[in-house]
Structures are given as C-alpha cells and as structure tokens.
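Ops channel
N.P.: pipeline sanity check, posting one input/output pair.
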C-alpha cells in the first residue's frame, strides 16, 4: 500500500516545484508525473485506516486547460512518523528538477494577433519598426513594399496570416539581399539562462511566385550580436529546390559566412524540396561547440532531415534572427518569386548534466531508502 504521508510528500513537493517552474517555460516536472502516477494508489489508501489518524491529505487535480497542478489542503500536515521516508522524498524532489533542461523563449511570431493584411513596414532602412516590431532593410527597388502580411497562399490553407517576402529579380537595382527582423532576440537574450547554450529555431516556409526558373533563395539567418556572423541559417533555392546550410566557417584559414548544399538537389538532379509546398525548417546553433545545423520536415515538424557543419563561431551569442530573400547568381532579369514565412519560434535550451553535489544528494537518497528497507525487513 502507498502510505498516505508518502503521497502527501509527492504531492506537495511536485506541486510547489511546478508552480515555481511554470513561469520559466518548463514542462511538468518529473515529480508531478510521479504524483499523477501514484494518484490511483493514494485513492485506494483513503478508504483504509490511515497511518496518522490526525493527518490530512493533499488532493492534486489537473486543470486540463492550463496543465497546472493545483492543491486542495484538508486538515493539518502529517506527523513525522516516517521521518526517513519524508527526508528521502524531499531530497529526491530537489534532485529530480536539477536534471531537467529548461527551454527559454526568445521569439515567437505567427503574424496573427496584432497584425493586419498589408505592408509589414513603411521604412526599408531598418530604422522605424512596423507591425509587430518588425524592421526591414534593402537598397533594392520597391523598398518596404517587398514585405507584406498576406493570407495563406494555399487556397483553404490552415496558416491564416503569413509574411510574404519578395527577393530581387537580378535586374539593375534589385541584385541585393533583403532582410526583416525584430529586436525580440536581442531583448530576451539579456535574461537567457547561462546554462542555455543551444539555440533552436523552427519556422514554416513556402516557395511561391510566378517564376520557376529564378535562382532566388529564401531562408532565415541567426546572426550574432554584432550582426556580422551568421551563427546558423537555412535557405531554399527557387529553381532547383536545393536546400542549403549557412553559417560562420573556417575554410582553410579563411573565416567567413559560407553556404553548404545538402541533399541530392542541384542542376539536372531531382529537387530536394518543391515549390508551392509548405515545409517546416529547423535551424540550430551550439554555442559551446560552434556547430550549426539545419533541416526540413515534410510532415509538419514531426520528423526532420537534418545536416550539420562544425562552424567557427563558438562562444558567440545570437543577436537577432532575419528572414532573408537574396539573389543567388546572374545579372539578367528573371521572373518574380515570393517566400512565405509563418510560425517563427526560437528558444534556447541545454542538456543538463548534474553537478557532483547532485550525485552526492542522490547517493544520500539511496542510503536513506536502503535504511528504510532494512528496518522494515528487520521488523
């Protein structure tokens, strides 16, 4: 039988931890999951004689709309008849969360709330923010009219409002890169946990427009805080469907931002990706190692085909993420293309490695529980 006062400890510690961690974008803790698993056993014990007649019990329940563990307190706390058990469980409740990796939100944009159809900004110099705090910059013709909030290009599609970007057509005055960004990443990095050194972006992308022959590339770059290094990026080329990784790399002693083709696409080869199709792209940068990674998903982000390069920007922090439209090559005028973006989501995370003190506390828990088992066996 699961003793009532043991269940109380599970309930109390797990709920308190989740109340604290909820504001830090953490998921339900291990202790809460354990508590929920014990709920049926605890319910059975309520109909039996309690170990502590003057004790009370905590009844946790789940608000399915917010996934938060709440508490109902009845009576008084249990008397410490099983002090060793209580101590062991308290120690475990402290140790378990230490092994969790907390995701920290840096940017989240879906172009719905607060956005209206029409131009994203009225300024293409990167000085004045437009809708949603977005800035745009280009020296090409068309100016700010190259970025617009529009409806999903797929008739009857599920994406609602999306961002449409028009790259240059390689004619005079258009052979330039066009960038759009917000200050969300720079602002939120000031509060980024020191242990979170892996930065991940996912976004939905659709290659459209009238031209199937243009060499335009569209994608997303994660820049460092100086705006010069591309820590990680991904692009797709319009005419070939080729997928590219982009990042800061040491090319035989020459440092710079380089593009790497991935997959089997290219001239005369089947495309890796297709026009007029929604994909989910991922971009990841590991600050500790400098490795950058990018991938694409054809099933809405459930599974990804990913590629990586060991880059040369280790130790750098992200400063912003930019949607980009660029001319790849050529000078002759080409047809019009459009790159559509939606659900841009960036977090920082870490793979937690417990400190030696955490292992020591875990060992203490094992010793205490072993002592409990020994006493019960002797009894």
């Amino acid at each position: 039988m699961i003793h009532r006062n043991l269940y109380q400890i599970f309930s109390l510690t797990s709920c308190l931890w989740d109340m604290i961690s909820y504001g830090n974008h953490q998921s339900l803790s291990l202790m809460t999951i354990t508590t929920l698993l014990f709920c049926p056993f605890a319910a059975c014990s309520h109909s039996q004689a309690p170990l502590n007649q003057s004790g009370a019990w905590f009844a946790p329940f789940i608000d399915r709309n917010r996934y938060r563990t709440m508490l109902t307190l009845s009576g008084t706390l249990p008397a410490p008849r099983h002090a060793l058990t209580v101590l062991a469980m308290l120690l475990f409740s402290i140790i378990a969360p230490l092994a969790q990796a907390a995701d920290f939100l840096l940017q989240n944009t879906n172009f719905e709330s607060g956005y209206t159809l029409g131009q994203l900004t009225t300024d293409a110099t990167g000085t004045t923010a437009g809708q949603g705090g977005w800035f745009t910059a280009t020296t090409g013709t068309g100016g700010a009219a190259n970025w617009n909030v529009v409806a999903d290009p797929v008739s009857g599609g599920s994406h609602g409002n999306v961002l449409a970007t028009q790259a240059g057509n390689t004619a005079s005055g258009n052979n330039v890169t066009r960038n759009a960004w917000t200050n969300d990443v720079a602002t939120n990095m000031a509060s980024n946990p020191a242990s979170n050194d892996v930065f991940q972006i996912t976004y939905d992308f659709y290659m459209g427009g009238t031209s199937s022959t243009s060499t335009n590339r569209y994608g997303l770059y994660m820049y460092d805080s100086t705006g010069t290094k591309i820590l990680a990026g991904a692009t797709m080329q319009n005419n070939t469907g080729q997928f590219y990784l982009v990042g800061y790399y040491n090319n035989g002693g020459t440092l710079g931002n380089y593009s790497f083709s991935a997959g089997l696409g290219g001239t005369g080869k089947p495309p890796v990706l297709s026009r007029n199709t929604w994909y989910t792209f991922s971009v990841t940068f590991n600050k500790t190692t400098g490795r950058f990674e990018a991938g694409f998903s054809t099933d809405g982000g459930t599974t990804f085909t990913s590629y990586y390069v060991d880059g040369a920007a280790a130790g750098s922090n992200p400063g912003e993420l930019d949607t980009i439209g660029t001319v790849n090559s050529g000078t002759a005028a080409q047809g019009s293309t459009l790159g559509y973006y939606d659900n841009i989501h960036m977090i920082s995370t870490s793979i937690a490695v417990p400190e030696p003190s955490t292992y020591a506390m875990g060992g203490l828990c094992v010793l205490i529980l072993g002592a409990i088992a020994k006493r019960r066996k002797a009894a």
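N.P.: looks fine end to end. The CA atoms of residues 91 and 158 lie 47 Å apart.
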